[in-house]
Design brief:
Two copies of one chain form a homodimer.
Chain A lengths: L5 E3 L9 E2 L1 E7 L2 E7 L2 E5 L4 E7 L3 H9 L1 E6 L5 H9 L13 E2 L8 E2 L4 E12 L3 E14 L3 E2 L2 E2 L1 H4 L2 E4 L4 E11 L7 H4 L1
Antiparallel strand pairs in A: 2-14, 3-4, 3-7, 5-6, 6-11, 7-10, 8-9, 10-11, 12-13, 14-15
Chain lengths: ~190, ~190
């Protein structure tokens, strides 16, 4: 089969949509936060996630030094503060007062009170790539609040996460639910 | 500062929202596709991405053997087929006829015609984790169609991607745009 109407748009085209997170670390004694979309879960048990941080970023120093970091998921009400953390570097601006900070088990993984979900991670492996360091972290604690639960379970519609689209560079709310996983696919064999 | 109203919900709580992709490989001579949400860009230049595949998955065999894979981003019209690819294993069902397949530069990275974005990747590094293998791949080609472009640029609103939420296990459309990156954050210093 040929390529039909497909056109090559070059290898640098980004993946999308991406989750939006604030990664926290202690740098030079103070909490610092960086906007990060290059993040994913990578292992089931133990729960591991991987986060790619540019080698030049201020936050990266703190993760290397303490081998701990936090991942905070902001709700839509924090879109401006989230963008701000990617616009200004901790090298120039002290971002430690931007949010209320708390700690879980790890004393060098600053967690953001205003975010509906907080994960604290211990680095278990680091992969050096040309422009980025890929930190693989074990999640040792996850925090939320009662108001984000429904029937005792975390409820994404209350947490109101948002996503980041490249190449436009825009943030988007979630819209309509279009299906249940492990269920909607069952109708496929019949309709083929 | 104490934890205020925060409650510990345990380390296994997932990241969200996650992108939804179909990862393709050649396994036992045939194209096979697996639904994958554990994926992220990890390096700027060269363009590298990381994908975590369960060691037990059929697709994983093909990526290990040929050291190539594809990443295909489905639009909302493919939600059922996408879910199906995660429900049934290539060990039991031949998924090679589910989509129209084409190839770019790599002859062992099957690309899906029906998906608005296709990336073909060559594995440059593999990290062995307890339950998953983390493949770091260099993107060597990206494909779309003219109908998904606006002013010559890929237009996400035409591509209509969707996201996956855990722990509910649900697929969601994108909703309203809530801000421009590198812009909306500029208002923060003034309002603090």
């Amino acid at each position: 089969m040929n390529k039909m109407n497909k056109i090559n748009i070059g290898p640098s085209f980004p993946l999308y949509p991406m989750p939006v997170t604030l990664v926290g670390a202690i740098v030079e004694g103070r909490p610092n936060f960086l906007t990060v979309a290059w993040i994913s879960r990578v292992n089931l048990d133990p729960p591991l996630l991987a986060v790619a941080l540019n080698k030049l970023r201020y936050t990266t120093r703190g993760v290397q030094e303490h081998r701990t970091f936090s991942v905070n998921i902001p709700g839509v009400d924090l879109v401006a503060e989230t963008d701000y953390c990617g616009l200004v570097s901790g090298k120039e601006v002290d971002k430690s007062g931007l949010f209320q900070v708390f700690y879980g088990e790890l004393k060098t993984a600053p967690l953001i009170r205003e975010c509906p979900l907080n994960l604290e991670c211990r680095v278990v492996e680091m992969v050096t790539l040309p422009t980025h360091l890929l930190f693989i972290g074990e999640v040792v604690g996850a925090y939320t609040e009662e108001r984000f639960l429904s029937d005792g379970k975390p409820d994404m519609q209350r947490m109101k996460p948002f996503v980041f689209l490249r190449p436009e560079g825009t943030y988007w709310k979630l819209g309509e639910k279009i299906g249940e996983a492990y269920r909607i696919g069952k109708e496929v064999p019949g309709r083929r």
